[in-house]
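Example with several molecule types.
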Amino acid sequence: MAVKTITGDQAVAYGAMLARAEVVPGFPITPQTIIIEQISEFINDGLMDADFIPAESEHSVMSVAIGASAGGVRTFTATSSQGLALMYEMLFAAAPIRLPVVMAVANRSLGAASGIWTEHNDSVPVRESGWLQVYVESNQEALDMTIQAFRIAEDRRVMLPIMVCLDGFILSHVVEGVDIPEQAVVDRFLPKFSPVNVLDPRDPVMMNPVTPPEFATEMRYQQDRAVEAARVAIAEADEEFAALTGRRYGGLFESYRMDDAEYALAGLGTWAGIAREAVDQLRSEGKKAGLIKLRYMRPFPGQELRQATLNLKSLGTFDRSAAFNGYGPLFTEVRNALYGSGIMVTDHIAGIGGRDITVETVRDMYDIVERSARGEQVRDCTWHTLRGEMQ
Amino acid sequence: MRSMKDVPREDILTHGHGACPGCGYAVTAKNIAKMLGPNTVVYVPASCLVVFGALYPYSAWKTPYLFTAFENTGAVTTGIKAALRRRHIDATVVGMAGDGGTFDIGLQALSGAAERNEDIIYVCLDNEAYMNTGIQRSSATPFGAWTTTTPAGLEVKGNRRFKKDIARIVADHDVPYVATLSVAHFTDFVRKVQKAKEMRGFRFLHCLTPCIPGWRIEPSKGVSINRLAVETGMWTLYEVENGVPRVTYKPKVMAPVTEYLKLQGRFKHMGEADVRTLQAWLCEKWRANYGEEAPSPPCVLPPKEEVLAHDGDTLYGI
Amino acid sequence: MYEIRFHGRGGQGAVMAAQTLADAAVRSGFQAQAFPYFGAERRGAPVEAYARIDTSRIRTKSQVYRPHLVVIMDASLVELVDPTAGLRPGGKVVMNTTHRPEEVDLGAGVDAECGTVDASSIALEALKMPVVNTAMLGAIARVWDVVPMGAIVEAIEDRFGSKLGHRAGILNAEAARMAYDATAVGRTIGHREFAKERRWMPVWDEIPISVSLKKTVHDEEEVGPATTWQHRTGRWKWSTPLYKKERCIKCLRCWWSCPDAAIVRQDDDYMRWDLEYCKGCGICAEVCPVDAIRMVPEEEGGNP
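Resulting structure tokens for the full complex:
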């Protein structure tokens, strides 16, 4: 095992290379670009046997990926923000056609009032596209999950495309020491790609013709069940990867100091690392704070969250995007999952448009959650670091 | 294959599909598919073809078939070919798109695939408007034509723009083969499809495919009207092979455009001035394509330049 | 509330018929709605259109499953669909056919007041085109007294007039009047058993994934690649090709030019028409250089 000091983007590229992705369409967009640059280098240095296809826009990137996956080869790509939005339409094609494309998304603000900095309003809104979504906390996890993503996506019980999301700049451009697994280890973990349906003249298949109302409901339900089936594949992948590398991530989410926690926060991405710091500080002050590092947005671990929060008095959710319903989207999902549990749930929006999140910010979140545990009246949604009074 | 006689009997786009009676797409796609044969993967974007060729759970195509969206024929076929190549499967990948999905919304993906010289055959079935969605204009719609978004109203009568020259745009990407086809010009058609089948790299086949309801013509004219399209200059049959352009059929006589217009309801509202404008455009096109003065009639010869004075310099050669 | 269902073929104007009926109802003081079965209507393919008429506001927008009135715009549809499915007791039928009501058989269990009219001939006479929608509206007024003929005529003149021109409005209204006068009213009682169309309707965990199918047989139906042969599109045609083999020079142009692959090139290069799929477009007759093919009205029959 070699340890290299690399960025999150590079780590993802190593993951794709070790996973032996064969077709990689790509288009530049900050902060994902390093992924495709690194892959291009691997290919041109003879280290990766793959075709890099410089498509002329992200919509074409996903279209090429769909064509290649339908053609029967392991396909990988990456994008961010505007690029993800541009391929929006095609996301909704890849999932029902059950093509196990793996795509890294370096989370970046989408749309106006922003630029190239981190926000989750690119990937979270497409959680209804049918893609699986996993969010990582470190460069190591980015590499490891890229590899695991192929395993989960290609599982015959699943057969769905998957997004591996990493916070733009905070991971994509920050170097960390990352363990690069041996190719032999990855080969043991990841079997050869064996698709269910392939475009091959020797065995013709009609793939996604226009579909009338008589069939669509059943197909969509089938797809919904496949997302559910991913739970098992996710748990198995986590176990087996741990057995081979020693690194375990907990599957759908990781519970940190939750055993006797009275109150906790749940959230996605690098925020979780800062939250660990906050929890450790709070614990050293005698407070029974815990953390749920949520990893998968889809499948959404509703039942599992209920189990993990049974003894909590209150829970806060961390949202790195607004849903414009007065809350953020993760809050809406979590509160739905905890309906009837009696737990007070509050929402905490921060890090919008790349604004930095510090331990202090997260401690403010915990403070509100603690107060709500004590029965105090608190806002149910707080925009942290906002200048000016909330209404 | 050199002529119709050599074209296989086996149908690849089989009967029972839902095309309108007389559909130009159907004839053209049928014949191209026959010639490409069963060792082919077909991609069809949103178009009439996608609606009449396969509706779950039935498909008229014998070959593997995929549909996803409207604008991405150049891109999806790129991906399919890349996969087949990596799997060492030597099969033709063909995309069959309409004019909307090629000239307009599909232009970006087309340009990308052409520029990368992807090893695919891109067939544009051109019925000169967005027919599947109910006859709206595209940049392939000829000057003067009625469509639902260029209606013949009280003040403005029909389309005001001229048809985009897509074949030339594609040829400017330096691809191995670009050709214009007409299903009514059988031998020319067969030769060109055969050539495309044999070559490698990006091959673009631009076919004029009449639409019965969209052009408002008799169903029986669905093939033969193409002959008039060529005779009038509304369509030119040529190919560009490795950068070398060559006209493959030149009419002996230029028919006046009125002969073509009068058969089609989509042109019947055109006034004299617009017909003259269209004729003039065609005459210029004739000259540019065939490298000779357009015949008069129906074109007007450029006036002879009168020389009024001479300053004695023999260089002027008068 | 009254529910009306129109059965037609793409290009016969079923949608416009439903809309015009709704328009006429509104002019008569009713609330009304009309809409098609949303699909891609191609010329010739079976289509359905619906209308609802009521004295109070109509809130539902689902398809019509239990019509009070069924309008069959093309007699050949009876072979393809079950047009009277769900017809309410006391419901009425209006049909475009040369037969009288007593001669029409819409299937065992059908017992309904029925109006028949040769709308195709009337349309050809009045409009020079076999677009039967306005003629059918006249026939409806004759059989069904909910929407008065006067309102129907007014709606036709207005809608068709503004879409196609004043003269078209007048002529279409005339077609409606001619049909009104010519409609025979009687009773239709059905006897025959239609073969139940077997259609594959899988449950969710039976459907192969990926919206994909290889060629397979399910419930006696073939699905997947090259399975449209099960759609006998030859039923669409109203004219049919007649082949004079003795004149044929085996140039292959008809075979080449057929959009529907309905002309079979024999081993000796003579041709055989597969009338189950021929839509009667007439291209073969048009491209034949030696007049070996002629289009004749469907009743005269082509040769196999």
